[in-house]
Amino acid sequence: MFSETFRSGIFNKDFRRQLLVTLTVVIITFCHGISLGWLSPMLPQLQSASETPLDFVIDVSEASWVGSMISFGGFSGNFLFSFVMNRFGRKVALYGLALPHTCIWILFYFADSVEWLYAARVCAGLSGGGMFIVLPLFIGEIADKSIRGRLCSFFNLAINIGIMVGFVISSHVPYHVIPCAVVVLPICYVLLTTRFPETPQQLMRWGREEDAKRALKYYCNCDGPTPSKESERAYRNQFEEMRGALQQPTKDSGNEGLTMSDFCNRRALKAIATGLVLMVGNIFTGTFAFINYMSNIFERVHTQLEPNTNTIIIGAVQIVGTLASIYLVDRHGRKILLSVSCAGSALGTGAFGLYAFFGDETETDLSAISSWLPVTIMAFNIFLANVGIISVTMVVLVEVLPPKIRAVGTSACLGCLSCFAFTSLKAFPLMMEYWGLAATMWGCASVSVLCFFYVIVFMEETKGKSIYD
Fold this sequence. Notes:
Elements: H1 2-8, H2 16-25, H3 27-37, H4 39-46, H5 60-88, H6 90-110, H7 114-142, H8 148-172, H9 177-182, H10 184-193, H11 200-205, H12 209-219, H13 229-246, H14 260-264, H15 266-284, H16 287-292, H17 294-300, H18 307-332, H19 334-361, H20 373-387, H21 393-400, H22 406-434, H23 437-457
Helix pairs in contact: 2-8, 3-6, 3-7, 3-8, 4-8, 5-6, 5-7, 5-22, 6-7, 6-10, 7-8, 7-21, 7-22, 8-18, 15-21, 15-22, 15-23, 17-18, 18-19, 18-20, 19-20, 19-23, 22-23
């Protein structure tokens, strides 16, 4: 059974290059994850006059802006890289992702006022917003439909590994050493990205059919002197399907200009609604805010473990959740994972809110269980969120949107995601302060319940769906 799964999965020799190219492009998402994880342990240091590694101290208001400025860059990055990708191709957009990310670490290193930190976080948003546009589409176009979900899930796996690395190094490595070490990674990423071709679909859109054939043979691993019959057959089938889809305007291939009717038909409206609901679930179920304010959350519930230790544990749980998603997404489908994830997030955030209510607001003595229960509930919540609503969202977004509006629709949904992320990051600490942690968690749980209802009733399964349908 295992050997059969191995032969038919992402390690199949016919899919080897698709896997290697995916691992190459997610280097930049790993770097982005480090920049995200850097914030949570570093903020308390920057706010402390005795611990700050810089020549200035930031107050609570400035700290909230440092946290939320990433969303301004994310909104701009969504539309900037969407334009670059569609005007100049996927490869140029991939190269471009390295530029703002490199600027992050340069700005962190030379920061002599809080404005430098704001600028660095805006650059992190530009890079991150571009990644969420470019990488799912790029991976979706080069990947065979039988492994597309798993390869797209590597995007989130790399981010989560990066977040945990960021948690660890910002807790234990001197401030000015971190940029010097991490800035090497985007340079390596650019050099490796030169080693593979543009996507066949983009080359076909440019009318370069012979180049598209060569690119598709490369990604199907059948460009050698003695390709296997299976890989040759897969190449021919994929090329005919691709050519037929991209040369027929009636199949919404994108060869003609977009009109309002492309967005206002039943299929497009339902797809956009699904995308927006998934964006709401991705942010307002709370996971993104939890990651940014994890240390503050654990301080509020008076856990006996050191806050940064809890944060690193949660970072490891994120990785396990994403690995589970990679294993399950193409075996059991997207809908079941999203359903389980939304239901589990509702239970997890609801339970954490209940613990916070008794521990923080009623001042009940929970010392007997405070060393393990808060981190266990949060780990349960983060694990299930990464199994579905975090990891699978981008896979479904690429698959559910009609091809003709896919690029524009993805940009619009991710633009909304950036707005939602800013709202969440800016409002979350204020909600904890004025509503209390318990009510804040219950608010996240209610969003999870609404998303669960939508997924069960309205969302279609996209497992095995052709990228051209």
